[in-house]
Amino acid sequence: MEKLSPKEIESHLSLLKGWEEINNTLLIKYKLSSFMEVMSFANLVSDRSENIDHHPKIIIDYDTIVFELSTHSEGGITSLDIQLANFIHETYNELFITKL
User: Fold this and answer.
1) What angle do CA 67, 68, 69 make, to 5 degrees?
2) Per residue of the chain (100 residues), what is the pLDDT tens digit?
3) Domain 20-96, CATH number (from 3.30.1360.20, 3.40.50.970, 3.40.50.2300, 1.20.20.10)
4) Centroid of chain to Cα 87
């Protein structure tokens, strides 16, 4: 697995609203309604992470959750990080964005 180029990362981030790249890491922060929502969301992401054998840094502070994605063995962002970011993004939208 290879690191993605800055141009590839930028292209993927254009489709991931709210995500940013800082110091070779993909980062997103969500504020939810409750601690239980945060924990449920974290559990869904951790299940997917286990399935693809790629584990993010997850920071939980009551009703706020932060995901940091990077492939340490490659020293930056790879397709696995993009895959997991897409899952997190889609799951958040499905669970927490109100549809009209």
Assistant:
1) 115
2) 899 999 999 999 999 999 999 999 999 999 999 999 999 999 999 999 999 999 999 999 999 999 999 999 999 999 999 999 999 999 999 999 976 5
3) 3.30.1360.20
4) 7
Would you say 11 and 83 are in contact if contact means Cβ atoms under 8 Å apart? no
pTM higher than 0.85, yes or no? yes
Residues in Cβ contact with 84 at an 8 Å cutoff, skipping those fewer than 6 apart: 45, 48, 49, 52, 54, 56, 69
